[in-house]
Every structure is written in structure tokens, then in C-alpha cells.
Amino acid sequence: MSNLKPFYDGFSNALFGPQPGGVPDGFPAKAAHRFAIYRNNVHRGLGDALAAAYPTVKKLVGTDFFATLARDFIASEHKRPGSLALYGDGFADFIANYDAARGIAYLADVARLERARLEAQHACDTPPLAAADLAGYEADIGQMSFAAHPACRLLMSDYPVMSIWQMQNPQDGQVPAKSILNQPEAVLVTRPEMSLQMQVLSPDAAAFCRAVLWDCATVEDAVDRASEVNHTFDITQCFADLLLSGALRAISSTGEQHGR
Amino acid sequence: MTHLPASAGVGFKAEHASDILDGNASVGWFEIHPENYMVAGGPRLAMLADVCAQYPVSMHGVGLSLGGGDPLDARHLADLKRLVDRFNPAMVSEHIAWSSHEGLYMADLLPTPMTKTSLDQLVAAIDTVQSHIGRRILIENPTSYLPLPQNSISELDFITEAARRSGCGLLIDVNNIYISAHNLGFDAEAFVDGIPADLVGEIHLAGHERDANDQDSILIDTHSRPVADPVWALFDRLIARIGPKPTLIEWDNDVPSWPVLQHEAALADTRLNAVRSRAPEMAS
Questions:
Q1: Among B36, B215, B216, whose Cβ lies nearest the Cβ of A85?
Q2: Residue B22: which pLDDT band, with cuts at 50, 70 and 90?
Q3: Does A17 touch chain B (CB under 8 A)?
């Protein structure tokens, strides 16, 4: 450790210390005004990055409450990498345990949806599974399992989370519902052709996707689970939708995604 | 590797993409912060590939924390190397500042004490980066708001010595010199006159503002407005001596429309061209 460790420790502590008018150890009190420039830059920089990652959460709770939420989240962090491109991992869980946000039960799930969108947006560009890739496998497809594309996220919420998101983001081009039914929504987030897409899945399609994407079930097992939800489950339509939205990873040459 | 031309460049902003991605923007080059592109894939990286295909690009880091007391973050270095390897930028640069402490990034460029110990640490950090990515970098002089009681070496000596010992070059931010000179009370012109010409690889220009809650007249590096006249004057003074260099207009807050930004870059180009025509032997 260098003999400058006390400087870096003291400066960092004062940046996050409780008194806005404080200065690091060893600095004169009259430096408070100047030190506050750094302090403000740090808190604004991190707060703006969190707001950029969770714009809908901010709209839902308002600027002032979001600022408090952000300050407390930032203070709770033990690790923060030097790139903020994927900043805010863990914010949804933080909200779920944040007493002052208990009154907005769906808020944590809105944060989960925004996190899913951010992760999908910046995920790896590996090719998605296309219908043509399955030519020749028709007889085996029931025994096959598929991996989710890196830009695919499935969110199972007890709340109408996508409807709430759309209500807050009408400019996104998707027409928001006139009124929101208070019912669970399963949302599939994908990034076909580099463009982020969200869709609410029907309960049977949600059961199918959950089995395929989360549990690595074979198509046959996934159909069984979807049929328990709805005995007229339409696998053809559902699988075509998954292919169209780029939800699945292309079959690799190693054959790792084939039947087990 | 393409060279950064000794003309004006600007920071690349997604909102200007449609104005510049026809390849006809009349600026010589673009700057990006590599931290914004430290992701696995997706449209943002695809857009950067488009920019790199049409213009020389400078990667100007803000997150390595070269001037901190901690070892450099291995993951961050690896991410930087991946970007440098993939896009082969015309320039790579960083700041003389610290921005992380014990694994926590602060999202700001904090002041590095200027002492013998911190100089040794900075030189070692630059050395680590240069050997990791396999190329020479430039380091930028800081903006200062606060005199540090720890300082024992003048800023000009500190940055010059860091560059000489590590073999890196200097990115001279003229707005930072003006602001720091005002805030700390040193002579900006003497500083500009003392910069070794052979070390300068790039120049930055930006707008600043006076602190809104002014108690003792502080200038803040806001990158939110046109370059101020006294900063232009220092820029003229610098390039008259060292010749034209790649010069970036930094305008990152209250980002203007493309024509306004392009106009600001044209003002820098006019001055660079004036120097070039006066002393053609200095043109680089």
C-alpha cells in the first residue's frame, strides 16, 4: 500500500459521507464548497446512469423518490465496474426489499423488465435459430431441446408488468391498453434484427417457454406442460412465434442442443 | 492503423448518427468512450462498427483509474483490449485521474495527488495499459477544483515526467488548463508555453461554466456550451508553437444539433488551417 492510501480512503469516504458539507480528512473546512463539486458529480453521474437503465421505474415513482432510492442503492453497492453500460444489476431485488417502496408491489417487476431489456439490448450477436435450420430434423423435434438466445429473457410476473411499462412509454410505438387488468403477465423479451421486442405470452405459451428456456425440457415435455394449462395448446403457432422473435439460439455444430 | 488527422473531431453521439453515417460529415474524426461499448453485442456496437468503417475513431477512456492507488482492474483492461483489437482505433487515451476505489467506480474523474509516489504509480499503470493493449496511449491533464494539500510536484512537471518515463504521449485539454489555472491560481499561458511539443498527440477543447453557487469564483468543466474566447486564445498560442494537432470539440451535455456541433468544429479547423498555412513545415 502506498503512503497515499489515507488520501484515497479519506476522499472516497467524504464523497459518500453523511454530511453534504464535509471535507476529506486533512482538508480545510473552507474547501467544502469546492469538494462539493466532486461530490455532486459522483452522485449525479451514478444517479443518471441508474435512471438511464431504469427510466420507467423513475417515471412511476417520480424524480424525488427515485433520487432517494438511487442514493440508497448506490450506498449499498460493494462492487461497481468502470463501465456503466450494464449498470444497475440487483436494483430490482433492492427495490423488493426497500420498505418505502412496499406500497408499489409491482415496482420490482417493472425494474426486472427494464433489466431484461437492457441485458437483451447488449447481449451477444450469436445467430438465432431459423426455421430452415430445422430442415431434416422434423421427425426428431419432439426429443430435441433448445437453448435460449443470449438476447432472450422470460419474465414471469404476478403483475401486468408489460401493460404498466407500455402505459408509461406510449411513444414506443406500441399502443397501450386503455385500462390495465390486474392479472399476471409472462413477458418474452427478444432482439430480432437488432431491435428490442416484447410480447405477453398466453398462459400455455408461457408454460411452454418456461419449460424450454429455463428447464431445458425437450419439446415433447414442454408441450405436455403447456397442455396441462390448456389442452388445446397450439405448438405449431407457439414455436413459429419463438423462431420469428429470435428467442432460440441456432443449433451449434457440436450438437449440444440435440435430444438428451 | 489509420492516423488521427491534425484536424477537428467531435464526440460521437447516437442522436447524430443519421447526420454522419452517410460518410459525408465535414469533421475529420470522432471520439468515443470505450466504456459505453463494453458490452457483448447488440445495436450499439453495430453502430460503432459503422462509424469506424467511415471515420478515424479515437477511444478516450474514462474508467481505467490510472491515477488511483489500486491496481488496474483486469476485467476493464481486458474489455478495453477487446475493443482496441476489434476496431483498431486511430488513438487510445485516458485521464490523469482516479475514478475507482476498492472496486467501486465513482463515475467522475477525481484529482490525483501529484507526488513522487503517485507519479511512480501512474507511470506503472500507464506501462501496464500500454503493454496490455500493445500500443502507445495519450494521457490527459486534469481539471482541478481543489488544491490538494498532498501535492509536492507542479502539474506541468508531473504530466511531462509521467509521459517521458512511460513513453506515452500527452493529450492537452486547453479548457482544463484554463479552468485549473483559474481555480488553483497558476499562470495558464506559462503552462501552455511549457508543454513539450514532441509529447503532444492530441488537443481537447470544451465549454465551461461558472459555478452557480459562486462563493469564491470557480469554473466548472461542463462540456455544455461553445468554447470560451480565452480558451480559443490559449489554443491559438499552443498550436502556433507546436503546430496543428488532432483537436476534439467536447460537447457532452445539452448536446446541440449536428449543424451547431459541426460549426464549432469548423472554428477549430479554421485555426488549425491558419497555423498550417503560416508554417507549412510544421504540418503533421
A1: B36
A2: confident
A3: no
The pTM of the full predicted model, rounded to 2 decimals, is: 0.94
**Which domain covers residue A185, as residue numbers?**
126-260
A134 and A219 together in one domain = yes
CB B40 within 8 A of CB A150: yes
- Chain B residues close to A76, C-beta within 8 Å: none
User: What is the interface pTM, i.e. ipTM, of the complex?
Assistant: 0.94
3-state secondary structure of B51: helix
Q: Which A-chain residues 40-69 have CB contacts (< 8 A) with chain B?
A: 41-42, 45-46, 49
* Domains identified in chain B and CATH numbers: 8-282 (3.20.20.150)
Chain B residue numbers touching A31 (CB-CB < 8 A):
146
Note whether A44 and A139 are same-domain residues: no
pLDDT in tens, B182-239: 999 999 999 999 999 999 999 999 999 998 765 678 999 999 999 999 999 999 999 9
Chain A partners within 8 Å of B105 (Cβ): 80-82, 84
